[in-house]
Write a structure and sequence with these properties.
Layout: H1 2-33, H2 37-53, H3 60-84, H4 88-104, H5 110-124, H6 136-156, H7 166-184, H8 193-205, H9 222-243, H10 257-279, H11 296-303, H12 312-340, H13 360-370, H14 377-398, H15 404-414, H16 419-447, H17 451-472, H18 474-492, H19 498-520, H20 525-552, H21 567-583, E1 593-594, H22 598-615, H23 635-659, H24 688-711, E2 715-716
Antiparallel strand pairs: 1-2
Helix pairs in contact: 1-2, 1-6, 1-17, 2-5, 2-6, 3-5, 3-6, 4-5, 4-14, 5-15, 7-8, 7-9, 7-10, 8-9, 9-12, 10-11, 10-12, 11-12, 12-24, 14-15, 14-19, 15-19, 16-18, 16-19, 17-18, 20-21, 20-22, 20-23, 21-22, 22-24, 23-24
Length: 738
């Protein structure tokens, strides 16, 4: 614990030094060097907004790059805020619209979400009287200078230790997959304990909850989506390699043996090529054929092999091998998109990689529209924030509240996504502000108008404020920030002890507004929404399982060349991932509440969507089993497939009732169920497509067992892995198809 505390203080001290240098240099340069109070104010608050108030994830250089890209947006906010300040109603309207837009941009990932509060402050500052468009030049010069100083400080002052990029983590997982496939292609055709452990560790390393926020591929562009897809495909490939059964025992290998070894060797080569591509190695091979990288030809050869004379165990192993090959194909194609972007689009299928051929503006529109509804927690937070800020601006304008932007700053920083968290933060903030106000009043009363004292004390106080505040919590932050801001304004204009009184009044008003809107606008935050979204995802997955098994046993009724799109399941994935992402930013569940494995819920949804598309793929696509459409299933096989599909769907529905219970389902059973392998009861001679579907449904039961384990486990007080799926961009799947 002491080590963790020391590390937290060390990280906060590095950031504090950067923001203090940037803000202090700009402030003193303009105030005492050029005598411009306007430029000094904007230089200081520009640096503080994007380094003190914001929490942009990443290393110093990554944050510097983000701030540099945000400078045009900062100019626009200052200009618009300056001209809308002419009337209270225009300022309020602007706050409503711009406040919503800046909060809603959090759908773009951790970095835009981290920068949003600072951008809000850059708009709040010029939206207050005096209405002085003639000072716009000074405002822009101050803002630009403050941000450029911050860029330099972030990039060159006490650089943070480097983090491992997600591409490198995916490349490491591909290397482990190569090792696994190589061992499975050699006698005794099983993984060694060390390799199995390495596969588990590589898969865990790709979980977004184990990845620094800045490295999570959460953007809306093709490369970010492809990289998120790469991580998910790598984990899928590793899991399937670990679960691959050994060849059937016997003195003679079955007819598939040589084809299976060739496929596993091709998977190993494909994984090695993928790792080299992700690492940008010179001469890294691109996919050799359109949508047939690595094991493509070997997969097609194994899928087209005859089934006569093969027992159920051999056919089941063939189905498992085809699943391994499919995961390797997806990994290679996703990695190509992650590295080459839209240039790789012609080489990948448009169904699974629907985003590959889209331009960035279209993909951003898809992301925004996927969250434009009252069930999206990003939309909820944007509405809550914009209404609270507009109300604070109206109160400040109508009552001519002195230093009214402090009230808005309090509203911005103290409004939380749950009423419980809002109440707790307000209590701490008011206590801290009261202590800070008393200390400030004493300093102002003692020092009076001797601005030299304030100038000397300001930088050490800023350094202490931005070091201790983030570590000790909001009470300390408010106390120290109250003193810091008072020392700033005491240098801009003569101040008395009543400045501390004004600061306390503003925080009280801002806190009250934040509490009201925290109560009225979705007061339960994402915790309830994530349960509804997870339950809806499982219900949509259950529907997809039933329709898929029905299509497989329809004997010519369906159109074999047009597989179902499962649009409702795709849309459920969009909303579920949005809810999971928001849950990460909220406090963990209270003691006594069970810890649910939300990542398993999400992976079950993905597995349902991809598996259904694979087993129903047209023969010409090269993805589906070659003989699935050629032969009707025997009645016994069709009945077994329907039975298993119904069992999977029923299990999903029971778990959805556990996640989001209603009155008659609060005691829904969720204990794990061990699948006994129904394929063994089916007569030999069935098409291999039956075994592919059987393997898919059996693996779905394993996914559901992991969810059930978490619903019946011991209670916990931690937040767990609730936000572990933040960086998986595959949740936007198929929004384009809606």
């Amino acid at each position: 614990m002491a080590t963790n505390g020391a590390a937290a203080y060390a990280g906060a001290a590095r950031r504090s030094l950067r923001v203090t240098l940037a803000a202090g240099t700009g402030f003193f340069l303009f105030l005492y060097g050029f005598g411009s109070t306007v430029a000094a104010t904007y230089a200081l608050f520009a640096a503080v907004s994007l380094a003190g108030l914001s929490r942009i994830p990443g290393t110093g250089r990554q944050r510097a790059g983000m701030v540099l890209r945000l400078i045009p947006a900062a100019w626009l906010l200052v200009v618009v805020g300056t001209f809308l300040a002419v009337r209270t109603w225009t300022a309020v309207a602007g706050m409503l619209v711009i406040g919503f837009a800046l909060a809603f941009v959090a759908v773009g990932g951790p970095r835009p979400a981290g920068a949003a509060p600072g951008l809000q402050l850059l708009y709040i500052l010029p939206s207050f009287p005096p209405y002085a468009p003639d000072t716009l030049g000074e405002r822009l010069v101050g803002t630009t200078t403050g941000l450029l100083l911050l860029v330099l400080a972030e990039a060159f002052v006490l650089p943070d230790p480097p983090t491992v990029p997600y591409r490198e983590l995916a490349a490491r997982a591909a290397v482990v997959a190569e090792r696994c496939a190589g061992e499975l292609a050699r006698a005794p055709y099983a993984l060694s304990p060390g390799t199995g452990a390495a596969a588990g560790a590589a898969g865990e390393a790709l979980r977004p909850s184990n990845v620094p926020e800045a490295e999570r591929p959460a953007g809306a562009g093709v490369r970010a989506r492809g990289l998120g897809h790469t991580g998910l495909a790598a984990r899928t490939l590793l899991n399937r390699l670990v679960r691959l059964p050994a060849p059937p025992p016997g003195p003679e290998p079955d007819r598939d043996h040589e084809a299976a070894l060739a496929l596993l060797n091709a998977v190993a080569r494909s994984a090695a090529d993928t790792a080299a591509l992700l690492r940008g190695a010179p001469g890294a091979r691109e996919p050799r054929e359109p949508w047939h990288p690595g094991p493509g030809p070997e997969r097609a050869r194994l899928a087209a092999g005859p089934t006569e004379g093969l027992g159920p165990a051999a056919l089941r192993r063939r189905a498992d091998l085809l699943e391994v090959a499919d995961a390797a194909l997806v990994l290679a194609a996703a990695a190509a998109l992650a590295v080459r972007g839209r240039e790789a689009a012609p080489d990948v299928p448009s169904g699974r990689f629907w985003y590959a051929r889209m331009w960035a503006p279209r993909l951003w529109w898809v992301r925004l529209m996927g969250n434009a509804g009252s069930r999206s927690v990003f939309f909820q937070n944007a509405v809550r924030t914009s209404l609270a800020l507009a109300a604070a601006r109206a109160v400040a304008g109508l009552d001519t509240l002195p230093h009214g932007f402090w009230a808005m700053l309090a509203t911005l920083t103290l409004t939380r996504t749950t009423l419980e968290a809002t109440r707790s933060s307000i209590r701490q903030a008011l206590t801290g502000t009261l202590i800070g106000a008393l200390a400030t009043a004493g300093i102002l009363a003692l020092v009076g108008t001797h601005t030299t004292v304030y100038a000397v004390v300001l930088l050490p106080l800023m350094l202490f404020t931005f070091t201790v505040g983030p570590v000790k919590g909001i009470g300390w932050s408010q106390a120290l920030f109250t003193m810091t801001v008072a020392l700033v304004f005491a240098q801009l204009a003569p101040a008395t002890w009543r400045l501390a009184e004004v600061r306390l009044l503003d925080v009280l008003i801002g806190s009250a507004i934040g509490a009201v809107f925290g109560l009225l606008a979705w007061p339960r935050g994402a915790r309830q929404e994530v349960r509804r979204a997870g339950a809806a995802l499982l219900r949509s997955a259950a529907e997809a399982v039933v329709t898929t098994t029905a299509a497989l046993t329809a004997e010519g009724v369906r159109d074999a060349d047009v597989p179902p799109e499962h649009k409702s399941l795709r849309h459920s994935l969009v909303l579920a991932e949005s809810a999971f992402a928001q849950l990460q930013s909220e406090p963990g569940p209270v003691r006594g509440r069970r810890l649910l494995d939300w990542q398993s819920v999400l992976l079950a949804g993905h597995h349902t969507l991809w598996g259904a598309g694979r087993v129903l793929a047209p023969p010409a696509s090269g993805r589906g089993p070659a003989d699935l459409h050629a032969l009707p299933l025997e009645p016994a096989a069709a009945a077994e497939l329907i039975r298993l599909g119904d069992r999977v769907a029923g299990r999903m529905l029971m778990l959805s009732a556990v996640l989001d219970p209603i009155e008659d389902s609060r005691q829904a059973p969720a204990a794990p169920y061990a699948y006994d392998g129904g394929a063994g009861t089916v007569p030999a001679g069935e098409p291999s497509g039956f075994y592919a579907a059987d393997a898919w449904l059996a693996s779905l039961l394993a996914d559901l067992d992991r969810i059930a384990d978490s619903t019946t486990g011991p209670a916990t007080a931690g937040a767990g892995d609730a936000g572990g799926v933040t960086g998986v961009t595959g949740g936007d799947l198929g929004r384009a198809g809606r």
